[in-house]
Specification:
DHBP synthase; alpha/beta; 392 residues; 2 domains; Rossmann fold; 13 strands
């Protein structure tokens, strides 16, 4: 996923406007999780949209009142279903950014919520319903925003949409208000991660002695819309004037808390803390990016696909995601707010190095973090080296 560029010249008024937009997007993700339709507005058009994973009969009925219901999938998911080839359009392998190109199919009139979910979820136990073809024209910006909302909600990246008749934005907003439907602008959805990152503020701090690192404190950062916090674990007294030893660690409930042997995350977390302590101090950023950014539930779905023979990258792509959905905007902003502009980055992942440097954090050195494989995660580690370029 491409990292947006942070605007370091933003002013306070712009941040306040961004916060209001971020709150609207955050509320829309909640509606998606509840299976409720949301109004998405673009420059020249508008639609109603609901998450394919959670939409219920009432939501489908409301969408169909507006017009033909369309299912929006990512290019990767459409390829898994064989839909791209059947319509004679470029397959994801031929697209410059396959997962960013929405793919639309018409839903049969009798398709219910279960049929929609079967099209979106590769772990569904029954066959997917064959969609009607071809779909009518639909604005790419609105289709992409519906997919993005589903991702932000940590749902399967698929949505059901219905185009609204041409009207002014004010008329669409009045309709939505009258029906109790939340409204959001497509451009605000696209900018959400940037807005959340640049408005991060420290909201809590405490000394937390840890096993192997007794001189440690945790600083919690929260974006202005009040959504998910990220944590900075500061060990010792690192000097901002010198390159600090730093680790970016994406949260992993199964590995970090349960000691899962399917990955090396828990061992990496504890190993990084021990190494930072051994080298005299540094920073570990604990980022809310479970499952390479797809969320815990989708990670469990990916595990199920892995049990059926897919590797960790293929499983994410079969679900319709990129192999790695993480971005490092929040990490760069947290380091800046803590006063660190140059780091010695403890990682095996070259994307983390490149991501931080694109965002203005200099990486003076890559420090490897090697964890021995076990019989459950050996294939996983091999895939990280072969497909993600990890250096062990």
């Amino acid at each position: 996923m491409t990292e947006p560029v942070l605007d370091q010249s933003r002013n306070a008024a712009a941040s306040e406007l961004s916060a209001a937009a971020a709150i609207a997007v955050d509320r829309a993700t909640t509606e998606f999780r509840r299976g409720q339709p949301v109004l998405i507005l673009g420059p020249q058009a508008a639609c109603l949209a609901a998450a394919a994973e959670t939409v219920a009969l009432a939501g489908l009925r409301r969408l169909r009142q507006a017009g033909p219901a369309l299912l929006v999938l990512t290019g990767r998911r459409a390829a898994v279903l064989g839909l791209a080839a059947s319509q004679g359009v470029p397959t994801p392998a031929n697209l410059e950014a396959p997962n960013e190109r929405p793919f639309l199919v018409s839903l049969p009139a009798g398709a219910d919520a279960e049929a929609v979910l079967r099209l979106a979820d590769p772990t569904a136990v029954t066959a997917a319903l064959a969609p009607d073809l071809p779909p009518p024209p639909f604005p790419d910006e609105l289709a992409a925003a519906s997919i993005h909302l589903a991702k932000l909600a940590r749902l399967l990246p698929a949505a059901v949409v219905s185009a609204l008749p041409p009207r002014s934005a004010e008329e669409h907003l009045r309709m939505a208000a009258a029906e109790g439907i939340l409204a959001v602008w497509a451009g605000d959805v696209a900018a959400y991660e940037t807005t959340a990152a640049v408005t991060l503020q420290p909201v809590g701090e405490a000394r937390v002695p840890m096993e192997g690192a007794e001189d440690a404190r945790i600083v919690a950062f929260r974006p202005s819309d009040g959504s998910t916090e990220h944590l900075a674990i500061i060990i010792g007294q690192p000097d901002p004037a010198k390159p600090a030893l730093a680790r970016l660690h994406s949260e992993c409930f199964t590995g970090d808390l349960l000691g899962s042997l399917r990955c090396d995350c828990g061992e990496q977390l504890r190993g990084a803390i021990a190494e930072i302590e051994r080298q005299g101090g540094g920073i570990l950023l604990y980022l809310a990016q479970e499952g390479r950014g797809i969320g815990l539930v989708n990670k469990l779905r990916a595990y199920r696909l892995q049990d059926q023979g897919a590797d960790t990258a293929d499983a994410n792509e079969q679900l319709g995601f990129e192999a790695d959905e993480r971005i490092y905007l929040a990490a760069a902003e947290m380091l800046r707010r803590l006063g660190f502009k140059t780091v010695r980055l403890m990682t095996n992942n070259p994307d983390k190095v490149a991501g931080l440097e694109r965002l203005g954090i200099a990486v003076a050195e890559r420090v490897p973090l090697v964890i021995p494989a076990n019989r459950f995660n050996r294939d996983y580690l091999t895939t990280k080296a072969r497909k993600f370029g990890h250096m062990f």
